[in-house]
Amino acid sequence: MGIEKFKELDPIYTQPYDPTLAEKLYNPEKPMENRITDIGPPYFWQFMPPVIQKNYGKWVSHEIIQPGVLKYKSETGDVVYVVRCGTPRLETTDYIREICEIADKYCGGYVRWTTRNNVEFHVTDEETLKALIEDLKNRKHPNGSYKFPIGGTGAGISNIVHTQGWIHCHTPAIDASGIVKAIMDELFEYFGSHKLPAKTKLALACCLNMCGAVHCSDLALVGIHRKPPLVEDERLEHVCEIPLVIASCPLGAIKPATAEVDGKKKKTVRINVDRCMFCGNCYTMCPALPIADGEGDGIAIVVGGKVSNRITPPEFSRVVIPYIPNEPPRWPTTVKWIKKIIEIYSQHANKYERIGTWINRIGWERFFELTGIPFTEKCIDDYRLAYTTYRTSMHFKFTKHVDEVFNAPENYKVELFK
Amino acid sequence: MGEVKKHDTPKVDQLKTGPWPSFVDDIYSYGEKHKKQACFDIMGQMELSYTNRETHWKHGGIVGVFGYGGGVIGRYSDQQEKFPAIWAFHTIRVHHTAGKWYHTSALKKLCDMWDSRGSGIVNFHGSTGDIILLGTVTDQLEPIFFDLTHQLHWDLGGSGSNLRSPACCVGKSRCEWALIDVQELDYELTMAFQDELHRPAFPYKFKFKFSGCPLDCVAAVARADMSFIGTWRDEIRIDQEAVRAYVRGELKPNAGAFSDRDWGPFDIKKEVIDLCPTKCMYWDENEQKLYINNSECNRCMHCIAVMPEALRPGQDTGIAILIGAKAPILEGAQLSTLIVPFMKVEPPYDELKDFIYKAWDYWMENGKNRERIGELIQRIGLNKFITEVMGLTPIPQHVRVPRDNPYIFWKEEEVEGGWTRDVAEFRKRHPA
User: Fold this and answer.
1) Do domains A3-138 and A236-285 have the same CATH topology?
2) Which of A17, A190, A229, B118 could form a disulfide with A291 if both were Cys (CB 3.0 to 4.6 A apart)?
3) Which residues belong to any copy of the 4Fe-4S ferredoxin-type domain (chain A) (predicted)?
């Protein structure tokens, strides 16, 4: 059975798929008959190429030969070359089959994916490497997009970790795949090059559940709402557990209530709209509190997070743009700001400085000035530990913001001394 | 197969162009080739979402397979008449392999199965790590599960209030910095806790992630309730000749990660010594020799990453365990916090399993409904979690800084004379 730790490829994979077998084995009358459970995933060892098996734990160093192409050296003298390619993550079995075809042709049938959803092909000699790279470059979708762009290494922009969006989720405020495609098209040059001050990780989450890596990325997008949920009084008591709904609110904005619908008393809830910050968690708990809204919903941009311990500790990303409207199918305003932030960062940061490290050096006031992102009160924290984000020192720089607000008589002085 | 009904999707179609791989072109090509109505209907519904700027999936959906409480995410379209082929469009989470290595014979068989029983659309991979089979109907769930287990020896991943599918970085299979065998650890713990993974028994979800070194390539510190990160406690190994080769410009800093921009010649002082967060390094220009005061090193990996040919982590390796990372809902985002600075681990990892059970036992008993362990630690206090729950002795490494307020709890038994006092006795000394 599958629980065996196969060091060699499990022979089951050499047998063709039988599309009729399950119906023979599964008897709805006796559902527990023939049922196999708790076998876990296949043991990884059987899926690793011979050179990887042989040199497991024996690697001594590596080198990035060119963007997207790595070379690893083992203490045994063996080398392995890796070609990393971008993928859209959302794909079809035909796309996976094409990856398999490439892996069969050049890599002995072995392939792996990275933690950022890039795909990696492994070869052991330069000639095969050359042929593989050439082949990958020439594979395109019918309308011209690259199927397997090579890159994602070093000081560039790798794949965007993202979520389901409108393709499969019920709570998103924005799409995922479409926005990612629009951004990666615009930042494509950075995927296949090493010209940034440090690696720059992008992520997207379509609501503030933040599935994935938004809260700890250099530059990330999160879907937000700006209207309180609708309350379906006639349906709520039938489909929701009211105490669960009340407990789901981070700000205590929901209280139980009774409403009259068609002369009948119904248990429901009321939302204190002044306390609601539109997180949507009550809708996650209760289908009778829909919150999505075409006009209200949009994107917040956060910057400066990281997970690595390199030089500085891991850090959260911070909100710098609180709202950009949804603009399908290409989200031009979002793409424009993302590109602007990358360019300003690229121009000003020192070598090895991640976006957050750079901002910590120059100060947030300088970041807002350099990027031209308008600073608003929306970026000032007002949740629980907000105090820790205030500036309780005389350490600040005079940027244009001070001039504009405090030195211009037409606003500050006039207002204050009238 | 009959003819398929195509929808007009002018907005979605605009995502066919541009250099980045187009999921739209892929899904349409697949739909045409296999005559799959679901592919056209999903793009049709996407177009509607692009017009309305709102999702068209109904709330929730509880489906699954017998014997398990999770692994399948139910989903129904709210436009079932317009897009009948996606009226139900459930997702199957298939547990990825540790390190995400595959052989094509297994992948192709998985594809054959999914062509036959699903939409043909997938995610490689979901953020937690699973292979996502995106879109099938309820009737197909049991046959898919039977195919997976009988014909592919492959199990579902986790969903719901349970242990989710653990994940790791590439580890020793292809990284010289892997300080622990993350793949083996991932696999062993996955197998040890199959019950906790398939049958939700927790107050809320719980995730494991394993990174081989502090660079944390699987983002364990941010995306796992229990984060296992490799580290070492002896000395960084230095090849002085290789260091000199970097200084002479013969080797590319950071393995060539900065190759497309002129950052000037490599300057070891500026790029390594001065950036060391603990300033524990010294480059002796005369001797042409690098010194590291290892007792002051916090193992951030920077110098090693800049000079991979010259510097290697130590050989006395183990794991650090950090606990409590989570996304914002409900009480705000958290990174995992250091609980165990160093632990030696060897298969079958019994000590580690005991540690995990200890945390789970308390959380399962005391965690509130939908309270992540990180929030539980916030609620009861890290000090109580370390001492009373985990039975550990607190050490300075447990905090970034000591507390600044004097609102300190003492237990009655810690205080001389206890808390039972007689006010009459007090008044004898201090008349009112």
Assistant:
1) yes
2) A229
3) 267-294
Residue A370, pLDDT > 90, answer: yes
Closest to B230 measured CA to CA, from B173, B148, B169: B169
Residue A417, pLDDT > 80, answer no
Cβ–Cβ < 8 Å for A178, A90:
no
Give the model's confidence band at A1: pLDDT under 50 very low, under 70 low, under 90 confident, else very high: very low
Q: Is the pLDDT of residue B375 over 50?
A: yes
Residue A406: predicted pLDDT: 87
CA-based nearest residue in chain A for residue B124: A89
In b/e form, how buried is each residue of B199-225, taking b as 16+ CB within 10 angstroms?
A: bbebbbbbbbbbbbbbbbbbbbbbbbb
What chain A residue is nearest to B149 in terms of C-alpha separation?
A36
Query: Which among B315, B306, B343 is positioned nearest to B232, based on CA atoms?
Result: B315
In terms of DSSP H, where are the helices of A117-270?
126-137, 177-186, 188-191, 233-239, 242-247
A157-225+297-412 folds as: Sulfite Reductase Hemoprotein; domain 1 (3.30.413)
Burial A41-59 (b: 16+ CB within 10 A, else e): bbbbbbbbbebbeebbeeb
Question: How close is the nearest chain B Cα to the Cα of A349, in Å?
Answer: 12
Domain ranges of chain A: 3-138, 157-225+297-412, 236-285
Q: By the CB < 8 Å criterion, does B163 face chain A?
A: no
**pLDDT given for residue A407 in this prediction:** 77
* Cross-chain Cβ contact B254/A172 below 8 Å: no
pLDDT at position A188 = 98
Question: Would the CB atoms of A168 and B252 count as touching at under 8 Å?
Answer: no
Angle CA B68–B70–B72, to nearest 5: 115
Tens of pLDDT, residue by residue over B22-40, are 999 999 999 999 999 999 9
Best mutation target among A9, A69, A114, A145 (most B Cβ atoms within 10 Å) is A145
Mean per-residue pLDDT for A322-342? Answer: 98
Query: For residue B292, what are the β-bridge partners?
Result: B281
Report the chain A residue with the minimal C-alpha distance to residue B221: A307
Q: Which two tokens stand for residue A204?
A: 């997207």
Yes or no: say if A129 and A86 are a contact pair by the CB < 8 Å rule: no
The interface pTM score, or ipTM, of the predicted complex is 0.97
d(CA A367, CA A377): 16
Do residues A207 and A172 make contact, with C-beta atoms less than 8 angstroms apart?
A: yes
Mean pLDDT of A391-404: 95
CATH architecture for segment(s) A3-138? 2-Layer Sandwich (3.30)
Structurally, what CATH architecture does the domain formed by A236-285 represent? 2-Layer Sandwich (3.30)
| Tokens, residue A368 | 């807002």
Min mean pLDDT across A301-305, B329-333, B335-339, B390-394 is at: B329-333
What letter would DSSP give residue B281? E
The DSSP secondary structure of A192-215, one letter per residue, reads T---SSS-B-EEEESSTT--SSGG
Q: Decide if pLDDT at B60 tops 90.
A: no
Residues 386-405 of A with CB under 8 A from B: none
A143/B22 Cβ within 8 A: yes
- Nearest residue to B282 via CA among B254, B245, B316, B240: B240
C-alpha R_g of chain A = 26
Beta bridge partner(s), residue B291: B282
Asked if pLDDT for residue A410 goes beyond 70, the answer is no
Contact A39 B149 (CB under 8 A): yes
Instruction: Please name the residues in contact with A285: beta carbons below 8 A apart, sequence gap of 6 or more.
Output: A240, A241, A244, A245, A248
Q: How far is B310 from chain A (nearest CA, A)?
A: 9
Span B250-290, pLDDT tens digits: 999 999 999 999 999 999 999 999 999 999 999 999 999 99
Task: Say how far apart CA A293 and CA B52 lie, in whole Å.
Answer: 8
